[in-house]
Specification:
The structure is a single chain. By secondary structure, the chain is α/β, with parallel strands linked by helices. It is about 25% helix and about 30% strand. It is built from nine helices and 16 strands. Strands 11-8-12-13-7-14-15-16 form an eight-stranded mixed beta sheet, sandwiched between helices. Strands 3-2-1-6-5-4 form a six-stranded antiparallel beta sheet. It has a two-stranded antiparallel ribbon with strand order 9-10. A hairpin with a 5-residue loop joins strand 4 and strand 5. Helix 6 packs parallel to helix 7. It is globular.
Length: about 300
């Protein structure tokens, strides 16, 4: 999966010492040890003499050069937002020196580290929650978890479940960062069924407004809702008769309540279901489900 991007010796050490299908992140920071993340546990990559592998400038620059197909400028729209998306949904987070022009971000240069996030397709991880989301009607649903706990994995499987249950609802995926459907040259690595349309690499505002007008969706699925900026688009969709399934960063329902705009969400009853995930048993582990009044209607026993 990453063979064409990583230095050959690094790639060979990884596949020698780890099962690639278990890896969720590869962290490369200049002058620091290379770290492999599996289920939120961190491991040092060892060389053949059992020494920690250190990341140097050449190693990092080689990776970024390959990830950007030897053209940083061609990928600059993504880079200035802090990431590059590779085939199969691999998202490369970037840190370095941010170049600005007034308040406008021009690019990122002098890269200091990358976080290679490897997606996992966990079929049926949303199955236990699916009847709470769809009971003949689609419930507007907000999926909650900390970063890395499987929100994107979960909504990928929700799309799969609509397909598996033969539910002929038009689904529009607003895939702002190309992480959900991992579209390359118009084709996706996921089996999305016969009723799914995708907007990739655009703002939610654009996808919602143009999608409702052009694609006539019954349901919009999107990732990483920003309560400060996206609520008007969500409400416009709901008022147009379109259902919403979205994700948001929060550790649990209590942390979500502390977000400044969440009171508006409750007062105006945007969502009928709130689903809380953990990574206790792998990405997308279902913990709790709440109704529109935040009454707990499902609780995972330990």
């Amino acid at each position: 999966m990453l063979k064409e991007y990583l230095d050959r010796d690094i790639y060979n050490l990884i596949i020698k010492n780890f099962n690639f299908s278990d890896i969720t992140e590869i962290r490369m920071r200049i002058n620091s040890n290379l770290i492999i993340v599996i289920k939120n546990k961190k491991y040092y990559l060892k060389d053949n003499d059992q020494n920690n592998v250190k990341v140097d400038r050449l190693m990092l620059d080689n990776f970024i050069k390959r990830a950007s197909e030897n053209s940083i400028y061609a990928f600059n729209e993504n880079i200035k937002n802090g990431f590059i998306t590779l085939p199969k949904g691999i998202r490369v987070g970037l840190s370095g020196t941010v170049v600005t022009d007034g308040e406008k971000i021009v690019t990122i240069k002098d890269f200091q580290s990358v976080n290679i996030r490897i997606p996992h397709f966990v079929k049926n991880c949303s199955l236990m929650a699916f009847d709470y989301i769809f009971d003949g009607d689609i419930k507007n649903t907000l999926i909650i978890s900390s970063p890395g706990s499987g929100k994107t994995t979960f909504i990928r499987d929700i799309i799969y479940q609509f397909h598996q249950h033969n539910i002929p609802k038009n689904i529009l995926v607003a895939d702002e960062r190309n992480e959900i459907c991992t579209t390359v040259n118009g084709e996706t690595s996921l089996d999305l069924g016969d009723f799914c349309d995708i907007y990739t690499n655009c703002s939610k505002k654009f996808a919602f407004k143009n999608g409702i007008r052009s694609m006539r969706p019954d349901l919009i699925i999107t990732d990483e809702l920003d309560l400060e900026n996206d609520l008007d688009s969500v409400m416009e969709a709901i008022n147009s008769g379109v259902n919403i399934i979205a994700t948001i960063h929060a550790q649990d329902i209590h942390q979500l309540k502390k977000k400044p705009s969440f009171a508006r969400v409750i007062d105006e009853k945007y969502f009928q279901r709130y689903i809380v995930l953990t990574s206790d048993e792998g990405p997308g582990t279902l913990a709790n489900i709440y109704d529109e009044k935040l009454n707990c209607i499902y609780y995972k026993t330990r």
